[in-house]
Amino acid sequence: MPVDVDAAVISNTRLSEDYCVVALSAPAIAALARPGQFVMVKPARGTDPLLRRPFSIFEVLRDKAGAPAGISLLNKRVGTGTRLLYDLEAGARVACLGPLGRPFEPVDPPARAWMIAGGVGLAPFLTLGEALSARGTDTTLFYGARTASELYCVDRFERAGIRVFLTTEDGGRGGKGFVTAAVQGQLDLTPSGEPVHLYACGPTPMMRAAAAVAASYGRPCDVSLEQVMGCGLGGCYSCVVPVWDDAKPHFERSCIDGPVFDASRIAWEALAH
Fold first, then answer.
1. Cis before 242? omega within 30
2. pLDDT number for residue 272
3. Which of 7, 112, 177, 192 could bridge 138 with an S-S bond, Cβ 3.0-4.6 Å?
């Protein structure tokens, strides 16, 4: 069951003029969190913003004894709620409900895991990468952005023993082009019988492309959808996702049935609109 806490801000590390990592003291949430789950956050009292906003759990923070002590959130300043979160200082309080949602399921060796992140879609992958590394699963992060200045926290993944493959659309760092093209290129070099499980999160066109690549190479792919959510508990139906079951389309709530979905079940053309 999720817990609702009034979490103290431990630190706010500003990565750029728009991105930051906010660390929250929330041991009860940290103890329950699984890779890919999220929290609903409200960074200020009052009615602006009125509702909480969903954030993937970026890190599970631990104390010196290794016990869960808190979580961190990777935030991009794009609106009122994210601006307030960006402006927080240590000691501020944040209403935080979680963990919520269907998590990723880490694969075991001999399967390999390829995580595909675009922009702020990096957020759910540090916890997943750590869980995969703990299982001994060979893990690679394919991380793409428009420019080199929009690639963040790469060192945190490398310290976790995760191989990192970077791409930028302008060629400023790593390979030039879309991150899904890099994944396709690596699949071209991978024997067809070798098990590789794909995980993707980022802009909808990127995830749709990742799903198409996975399908064309016969590889399973899970995606973490970044839907707008009003409650995070399934009551408002603001986060519905079009999916296929038995050749019939219907809607599921991403806050309960997701945010992690089998990419082959998503009705991508309907979601894009």
1. no
2. 62
3. 112
pLDDT score at 44: 74
C-alpha gyration radius of the chain: 18
- CATH architecture of the region 3-100: Beta Barrel (2.40)
For residues 262 and 232, the answer to whether their CB atoms sit within 8 Å is no
Torsion from C-alpha of 18, 20, 24, 27, nearest 10 degrees: 120
Name the DSSP letter for residue 232: S
Q: From CA 117, how far away is CA 126, in angstroms rounded?
A: 11
The segment(s) of the chain belonging to CATH 2.40.30.10 are 3-100
Cβ-count burial 193-215 (b if 16+ within 10 Å, e if not): eeebbbbbbbebebbbbbbebbe
- What does the pLDDT look like over 178-189, one tens digit per residue? 999 999 999 999
- The upper half-sphere exposure of residue 209, i.e. CA atoms within 13 Å in the direction of its Cβ, equals 15
pTM over 0.90: yes
What are the tens digits of pLDDT across the range 87-135?
Answer: 999 999 999 999 999 999 999 999 999 999 999 999 999 999 999 999 9
Protein fold of 112-272: Rossmann fold (3.40.50)
Q: Using the 8-state DSSP alphabet, how is residue 102 labeled?
A: B
For 25, the token pair is 């003291």
Give residue-wise pLDDT tens across range 156-207. Answer: 999 999 999 999 999 999 999 999 999 999 999 999 999 999 999 999 999 9
